[in-house]
Design goal:
The complex is a heterodimer of chains A (133) and B (136). Chain A is of the alpha/beta class. Helix content of chain A is 39%, strand content 19%. Chain A has helices at 17-29, 40-50, 66-73, 113-132, and strands at 9-13, 33-37, 56-60, 81-86, 100-103. The termini of chain A are far apart. The chains are: A alpha/beta (133), B mainly beta (136).
Chain lengths: 133, 136
């Protein structure tokens, strides 16, 4: 008998602790099991130790070790959806194969939970569509 | 004696402080938190509460106790998921109390890390770490 899959999981890797926590809450509200890490080394250790299957990777592309981590997370029959976290002031070039991008709010920009939940749901939908296509 | 250099220094400090505040945006996150007030390397008091906001630079939390306006503190914030359904994940932050307004306490972080606890530790654990291990 097949083991039930449970909720899909999202691995959030960013050095901004507050943003990791914030996205963790929003992805949870969107029905995902959110796993946090502050760098790729931590993320890899977490995955190896708990043998985690990751459906969505939300990662700051500027962190060291991102391509290696993506290579490790890929599974033959389970497409990994990649959401790139970028600074609001970042330039337009995305250097890793992303299915969607999520822009970090600027320092003074007010943040609202309903608006950000909508944003996160939109990003997940976009990533799903792009990964399927 | 001219006060200009001193004023310049004050402005520089204020400027860097503002820049620091900008660098650590606070996010409204409500996580269960346990705190330990530390004094001379010992735990002076324990308690619990809930975070109001969290940033890389610190956290603000509410609790039922009235806490001092300064001092060293450790916060253990509970991530809402268990890894593999069994292993708790916590965010541990150590730092100083910078503001205590009744039961709302602001902490400036000196160090923070995610930690796992319990059942499947792969590292030899030090005798005094309470069974927790850092990731990695």
């Amino acid at each position: 008998m097949r083991k039930p899959l449970g909720p899909p999981s999202v691995l959030i890797v960013d050095e901004d602790l507050g943003f990791v926590g914030w996205l963790g809450e929003l992805f949870s509200e969107a029905g995902y099991r959110a796993l946090p890490a502050l760098n790729c080394q931590q993320a890899i250790a977490l995955i190896k130790r708990f043998k985690l299957d990751v459906d969505v990777l939300a990662v700051n592309e500027g962190l060291p070790g991102v391509p290696g981590m993506i290579g490790m997370l890929r599974r033959p029959r389970r497409p990994l959806k990649i959401v790139v976290i970028r600074d609001h002031s970042g330039d337009g070039v995305v250097t890793i194969p992303a299915h969607a991008t999520l822009e970090r709010p600027s320092a003074w920009e007010p943040i609202s939970r309903p608006v950000w939940l909508k944003k996160v749901l939109g990003v997940l939908k976009q990533a799903e569509t792009k990964a399927a296509g | 004696m001219s006060t200009a250099p001193a004023m310049g220094r004050i402005q520089q400090l204020l400027g860097s402080r503002r820049a620091d505040q900008r660098a650590h945006r606070r996010y409204p996150i409500a996580l269960a938190v346990e705190y330990k007030l530390l004094r001379k390397g010992r735990v002076e008091r324990l308690g619990s509460g809930k975070t109001v906001d969290v940033s890389s630079g610190g956290a603000c939390f509410e609790c039922a106790d009235v806490l001092p306006r300064e001092g060293l503190i450790e916060l253990v914030m509970k991530w809402p998921f268990l890894l593999e359904g069994v292993c708790p994940l916590s965010l541990v932050m150590r730092g100083s109390i910078v503001r205590s307004d009744g039961q709302r306490i602001a902490v400036q972080a000196k160090h923070h890390e995610f930690r796992t606890a319990g059942t499947r530790a792969t590292r030899t654990r030090p005798a005094n770490d309470g069974g927790r291990s850092m990731i990695p």
